[in-house]
Amino acid sequence: MTKPVELPQGTLEMLILKAVSLGPLHGYGILLRIQQISGERLEILQGSFYTAIYRLERRGWIKGAWGESENNRRARFYSLTAAGTRQLKAETAKWTDMAAVVAGILGKKAGEV
Amino acid sequence: MSLLTAIRRLWHSVGLRGMTFLAAIRRLWHSMAPRNSSDVEEEFRSTVEAYQEDLIRQGLSEEEARRKARIDLGRPSAQNENYRRAIGLRLFDELGGDIRYGLRGLRRNPGFAAVAVLSLALGIGATTAMFSLIYAVLLHPFPYADADRIVNMFGLHESAAGTSFNWAALSKPQLDDLGRATPVESVLGFNPTQMEITGAVPEEIAGTYLTENAGAFFGVRPLLGRNIEPSDAENGGHSVVVLNYRFWQRHFGGDPQSPAGRLGLWVPPASAAGAFSSPRKSLSHCFSWPLRAPPSAAFLGSCGRRLATIPQMS
Prior knowledge:
The complex is a heterodimer.
Chain A: H1 11-21, E1 25-26, H2 27-37, H3 46-59, E2 62-68, E3 74-80, H4 82-106
Antiparallel strand pairs in A: 1-3, 2-3
Helix pairs in contact in A: 1-2, 1-3, 1-4
Chain B: H1 3-13, H2 21-32, H3 37-57, H4 62-73, H5 79-86, H6 90-108, H7 110-139, E1 155-156, E2 167-168, H8 172-180, E3 184-188, E4 190-197, E5 203-210, H9 214-218, E6 222-225, E7 240-243, H10 245-252, E8 271-276, E9 287-290, E10 310-313
Helix pairs in contact in B: 3-4, 3-5
């Protein structure tokens, strides 16, 4: 297994929005999905995880509803709201921008500047 | 915008119109914390259980799995606290907790509570009383018309500079000059003095001589009779007095019949012209009548507040 990656602050919420955008998920499912997509390289602190979910729901970006999980357990499924979709789009654009700028700077070699 | 309007606007904007008060409160409460604790707890518990099952599938014993899940995730019963913290209600919770703690403490220690309440009551009471006094004595605006445009001017003796007797009263010509100055609308002269009431029980009282324009100057309507009028100064002046409310109450029992002719004074006997309407509306603690002395003798002094001439600025 490759070295685990630590999440920069504030990015967890973005990842949750992304995970939920692929289809309604319950809390634990979101966690698994993020870990799965990341190739098991993300260590997500459980405590901060639910805090992020609560905050996203509070802001109206995701919406929770009770339903049945795959193993017949009652679980709360989250789905993206319209506002959440917009937010995800904006955050993604921002992140891509920022990452490109940072990568551009870090990628410079002597003599290129 | 008044506070009430603001509240009403807020009320409408949250969509509370047409609800009973209780329903509105419930709805506000709900919008603050949309999920209750059992809801949050149940969700968290289902996560813990799912995680536990995964751990068992990975080969842990049930006991080990339960233990690890508990360590990794925390107690479901504590989750509501995390929820409320996440949505920003922690401050309210802590405040509520502090208040409850305080009340419990007060209930456990009734003696201490009584002392605390009593000190607060005394403190607030004393402050209020003090302020009422200061307001009435120092801050309360004079009840005269355009009180904010009345200024008090007096001359200073250079020779007596630095002493408390350095003010100088104005002579009648000086007063008249002052009255002709453009920024001065009208000018009032007064001379406070001590005098004595004659009768069964002689009494020393404080009085003030006023120039004949006093009634118009102060713009205070007497409760009974009339104000001092310019005609009172004709032919060397008449003996007319305006009583203040307290004096009228004390000496005449507030008799609505004019007490004219019933007041004997040691200084030229005066007949009362009027009484002012209320203690607050009375002219200081003095009672007064027109300045009747010949102009050359007229000088103007200071009352308790160091008032000398009071020109009214236009």
